[in-house]
Amino acid sequence: MGDLDTRKIRNICVLAHVDHGKTTLADHLIAATGGGVLHPKLAGKLRFMDYLDEEQRRAITMKSSSIALHYKDYEINLIDSPGHMDFCSEVSTAARLSDGGLVLVDAVEGVHIQTHAVLRQSWIEKVTPCLVLNKIDRLICELKLSPMEAYNRLLRIVHEVNGIMSTYKSEKYLSDVDSILAGPSGEVSDDNLESIEDDEEDTFQPQKGNVAFVCALDGWGFTINEFADLYASKLGASTAALQKAFWGPRYFNPKTKMIVGKKGLGGGSKARPMFVQFVLEPLWHVYQAASEPDGGKGMLEKVIKSFNLSVPPRELQNKDSKILLQAVMSRWLPLSDAVLSMVVKCMPDPIAAQSFRISRLIPNREILNKGVDSNVLAEANLVRKSVEACDSSPEAPCVGFVSKMFAVPTKMLPQRGPHGEILNNFTDEGGTSESDECFLAFARIFSGVLTLGQRVFVLSALYDPLRGQSMQKHVQEAELQSLYLMMGQGLKPVTCARAGNIVAIRGLGQHILKSATLSSTRNCWPFSSMAFQVAPTLKVAIEPSDPADMGALMKGLRLLNRADPFVEVTVSSRGEHVLAAAGEVHLERCIKDLKERFAKVSLEVSPPLVSYKETIEGDLSNPLEDLKLLSASSDYVEKITPNGRCVIRAQVMKLPSTLTKVLDESADLLSDVIGGKVGQSGKSLEIHRLSVGEDESPIEVLRKRIVDALEGYISYGNENDEDQFEKCKGKWLKLLSRIWALGPRQVGPNILFTPDYKRENNDSSVLIHGFPHVSVRLGLADNSSAGDIAAVTSSEVIQPLYIEAENLESSVISGFQMATAAGPLCDEPMWGLAFIIEASISPSTVQASESEPNQQSEQYGPFTGQVMTAVKDACRAAVLQRKPRLVEAMYFCELNTPTEYLGPMYAVLARRRARVLKEEMQEGSPLFTVHAYVPVSESFGFADELRRWTSGASSALLVLSHWEALPEDPFFVPKTEEEIEEFGDGSSVLPNTSRKLIDSVRRRKGLPVEEKVVQHATKQRTLARKV
Ligand SMILES: Nc1nc2c(ncn2[C@@H]2O[C@H](COP(=O)(O)OP(=O)(O)OP(=O)(O)O)[C@@H](O)[C@H]2O)c(=O)[nH]1
Ligand SMILES: [Mg+2]
C-alpha cells in the first residue's frame, strides 16, 4: 500500500437542487461499477441510495449515504446527497468528506436556489466541482427544441453557473486584496499581489472536459472528449483541436475542411456551431427515429453499425420505443463511462486534494505567545503536515473526521466480521436499553491507518492541544469496535482502512453527538466546524399521549438527537420538550422516527412554536436627527428601586437596520471576541486564526463589518454631502465607543450604551458609570478613552458609595440582558434596539455600621436584585412607550408554476400574507418562476395547500430569509376623526394581525391576555356616569 494506491482513490459527492436527478444518476454508476449490487435493468428505477422507506414513499432523498465503486483500477467513494432544503445539512456533511462534487442541473429547469447553495457549499469546502447537465432528453421530447435552440439553452446554463462561481471567486479576491492592504505595512508589493489568484477563467468549460451532458433516465451521457475522439479520424483533425472546437462559435467549413470562426464562414451561410452539427443533431436524429413507428429503424441500425454496438436482438425488437432508445443510447454513450472518466480526469485524488483543502480543514494558527509547550506544538504541526500530505503509511499519525452519526437497527449490522467470524453485535456500548439501534460514525480518514480495536482520541471542535489539562472535557478516548465500507445500506466489515478512504465506524456512539475529529494523538488540532446553510427553525413541543411514557420519550429524543445531524432537542424554560427541525418534511420524518424507532410510544405534537422578536417603530432615515433623539434627555422612563436608593432612567432607540443585521449575523464571531477566546492583548495565550481567505483576525473582521454597516447607513441620507457624512460618522463612532454590553445572552442584536458620564448630577447621588467592555474588545474604543472614565473615578474611588456603584454595574447589565431576552409584548427577545441606562444611587438613609454593611437589608431583598429588576422594568417600559412593534421571521420562497395555475397559486399566496417580489417566465418552458416572501407563521401546510390547489403542478421551496417588523400598531385604537369614521369608536375594531399573533403567543406562554368580552360597552358607560 502506498501513494500509488491513494492516487487511485476518488471521493466524490453528487449535489443538486431537489429532483434534478442525483439518485437516478447514482443508480447508473452503481449498476455499472458497484460489483453487481444493482442490476442494470433496474438502474434509474430502483433508486438504490434511497433505501429508507420514507425516501421511497416521498421519492426524495433525505440523508447522504456513501457507496464504494470500482471503475477500471480506481476506487470511487460516491456520496449521494439530498436536494431538498430541509436536509441541506446533509449536503454539508457530504461535501466535507468529498474532494470532488458532481453538480447536476436539470437542463429544462435550469439553475435554482439549491443549485446556488450547493455551489457555495462546494466552494467553502474547497471541493472540486464538475458540472453535469441532466435531462437532455426533456429538451428533445418535452420542449421539442431544435438542436440549435437546445444549444443556446445549454450555453446559457453553463454561463449562469460560471457566473455564480465567479462571484464566489471575486468575493475571495476582494477579501484577499483587502487583507493585503490592511496588512502590517499597508504596502502593496508585486509579490503580494501575485499571491492572489485572480483567474478570470470560467470554472466550467466543456472544452476542458469538466462538463458532462447526460440523460440519467435513459442511461446515457457524454463529455466533449467522447465526441472529439469519435470524429478525429472522420474529420481529419486532432482530438485536441476538436475538443476546443466543440463548444462555442466554432464552425466547420466542409469545402476547406477547416475549423473556422463565424467570420471565416463567409456571409449567408447557414452553418451551425460544431457542437450543434456534430453532437446534438445526431442525438436528435436517434430520438426522432425511435419515436417514429418503425420508420426509424434504419437510422438506429445505422448508429448500431457505425459504432459497432452489440444490442441484443430481443431489445431491438421491443415495441416500446423507450426501451429501444435506452438499449441503443446506453450502449452508444454509456452514462457511467462518461461521468466516471470525467471524475477520474478532472477531480483530484486525496493526496492532491488534501494539500489544498488543508487550509479549510485545519486552518493554520499562528501562535503569537511563546509560553506554550513547544513539543506539543511541534507534534500538532507534524500531524497537520501529515494530513496535508495524506500520508497513508502505518507509522503516520492517524487522523479522521466524523461528519455525522447515523442510526442503524442493530439487526441490520453484518453478523460476521472481516474474516467470517461470528460477531456478537448485541453487547453494544449503549447498554441493553438502547441496543435496538446502533450508532455508526460517517467518517473519512485523512492520515495514517485506522485499525479495528484501535484506541483513538475523540476531539470536539473546541479542543485546543496547547491548553492541556483545561481541555479535558473536549477530549475522550474510545475504541473502534468495527470498521465498515459502506455500500449504501449495506455494510462490509474490514479490519483496517487507510488515509483517503470513507468508512463507517462502530464504537463511537457514546462519545460523539454530531461531529468530531479522531486522532491517535492528543496533540492534534481539531478540524474546523462545518458550515450549515440554515439553522433549524421549525419548533414544536412534544409530549407523550400517556404521561407514564415520559421516560421512553426522553430516551427517544436523546437517540433522535444523536441520529439526526440537524435536529435540536431542548427543554424550554417552561419544561416542555422542544424539537427544532429544518422544515416541515424534516419535522414529519423526525416525528415518525421518534414514534416508530426511537421512543416507540404515541405522541402529542403541538402546533409549531413560531419565534418572534420585538422592536420599536422607526425607519431611521436621518442619521443625525436619530442621534439627537437619543441625547435628548426628556424622553426617558424612570423607575426607582423599592428601597428608594436607586433611580433608573432608561432611553431606547432603534438601531440602523444595517447594524442590527451585522450584529445578528456575526453572533459566532462576537461570542468568540467578547467571550475572550480571541484576546486583544494581555492574554497568556494568543491565537490568531489564519485560515486562507480570512487572513484578518476576527476582531478586524468584526470592526470592519460594523463600520461598513454604519457607513452604509449614513451615506443613505447623505450621498452628496461629504462634510455631513464625516460629521455624522464621527458622532456615531463616538457613540459606538460606549458599548457596555450586547444582549440578550451577551451577543444579541441589542446594545447597551454606557451613560454620558459628563452629564453630572448635582445632588449627592452617584452615577453607575459602567465600562465600554465591548467597544474596547472590538477596538472601537481604545483603552485610553476608556481610561478617561478610570481617571474620573480614581479620584472618587475611595468613597464607599462609588465602590457600591461599581459593584452594581453587573446588576444593570443583568437587567438589560433580562429585558432584551423577553420584551413587553409577548416575552419574545428584543431586536435591533439600543438602550442608555442612567442609574444613580444615593447614600443609604439608614446608617449602616462598618461591620455589617448588609444590616439594612432588607425587606425588599438584596439591593443588587432590586436594581436588576428595576432596570429590566425600565427597559421594557421604555419600549412600550416608543411604539412597540412585533417582528416576524420571513421565508424567501421560490415557486415554479405552469401558466394555467398562476391564478390559484396567487390565491394561496394572498391567503398567506405573502409579498411577491418578482415573476418571470422561464424562457423556452411553460413554467413561471415566482419569488415571494412568506411569513414563517403562515408557512405551515403551505406546500400542501399549494399542491392541492394547483393539482400538484406547482412546487415551492422556502429558505429562511430575514426578520421583518410588522408595520401595524398592535394596540391600535381609532383616535383621529378619520380613523373613527373608518373604524368606528373602537368597540368593534377586531384585533389586527399583529395583535392576534401577540395574543396567541401570550396564550401559549400562559401570560395574561386582554380579552374583549364586552363588545358594546356604551350602555355600561352611561350607567357608570349616572352612578
Ligand atoms: N426526463 C428525465 N427525467 C429524469 C432524468 N433523470 C432523472 N429524472 C427524473 O427526475 C425525478 C427525480 O429524480 P431523482 O434521481 O430522485 O432526483 P434527486 O436529485 O435524487 O432528488 P432528491 O434526492 O430528492 O433531491 C425522477 O422522477 C426521475 O425519474 C432524465 O435524465 N430525464
Ligand atoms: Mg436523490
Automatic annotation (TrEMBL):
Q: Name the domain of life.
A: Eukaryota
User: Listed GO molecular functions?
Assistant: GTP binding; GTPase activity; ribosome binding
What keywords is this UniProt entry annotated with?
GTP-binding, Hydrolase, Nucleotide-binding, Ribosome biogenesis
Q: Which residues form the Tr-type G domain?
A: 7-239
Give the GO biological process terms. cytosolic ribosome assembly
Gene Ontology CC: one annotated term: cytosol
Fetch the SMART domains from UniProt: EFG_C
Q: PANTHER family, per this entry?
A: ELONGATION FACTOR-LIKE GTPASE 1 (PTHR42908:SF3), TRANSLATION ELONGATION FACTOR-RELATED (PTHR42908)
**Protein name, as recorded:** Elongation factor-like 1
The organism named in the record is Durio zibethinus (Durian)
Source taxonomy:
Eukaryota, Viridiplantae, Streptophyta, Embryophyta, Tracheophyta
- The gene behind this protein is LOC111292000
